[in-house]
Specification:
The protein is an alpha/beta fold. Helices cover 19% and strands 22% of the residues. Strands 1-2-7-6-5 form a 5-stranded mixed beta sheet, with helices on both faces. A hairpin with a 5-residue loop joins strand 6 and strand 7.
Length: 149
């Protein structure tokens, strides 16, 4: 969630951000400008920060993750065409800007929960991580595509 805020407030200092199991809780201010490539990884099974929004951990009412994604689609001047790739246990959606650069990417897993995909379960009461992908690899590969001007 902090990555969303940093991208929104300091786009000239952020080459790209990767969000895992978070949502854009930060105010979606239409007056803020500056493009930042966004990678969002989330599990549909996450009940602590539900992808579709709603009451999660600590009784907090989280906004749907798609609200933040839609904010960045607009801010990054993305086309409305969604490029969707379906895999065995996840789907990948991406959107390009008018220059043909992928500016928003969403990985939505169908397993796991509020955990780091590709890792091991960290606590007995924690959620099992998704086995559909390795978040470390996905994020690193995404970051390697971008740099500050």
């Amino acid at each position: 969630m902090m990555a969303y805020r940093l991208a929104a407030e300091m786009p000239d200092k952020i080459a790209a951000v990767g969000i895992v199991s978070g949502t854009m809780f930060y105010e979606k201010n239409p007056n803020q400008v500056g493009e930042v490539p966004i990678l969002h990884i989330h599990s549909l099974m996450d009940t602590k920060v539900p992808f579709n929004g709603g009451i999660g951990i600590g009784g907090v009412d989280f906004p749907p993750a798609e609200e933040g994604i839609n904010y960045w689609l607009q801010r990054n001047d993305c086309n409305t065409e969604t490029i969707t790739e379906n895999y065995a246990n996840y789907e990948k959606c991406s959107w390009k800007n008018s220059r043909g650069t992928t500016m928003v990417t969403l990985y939505l897993t169908h397993d796991g929960g509020h955990s780091w995909p590709g890792s091991t379960k960290q606590r007995a009461i924690g959620d099992a991580p998704s086995t559909a992908l390795n978040a470390n690899d996905v994020i690193w590969n995404f970051f390697q595509q971008y740099s500050l001007p």
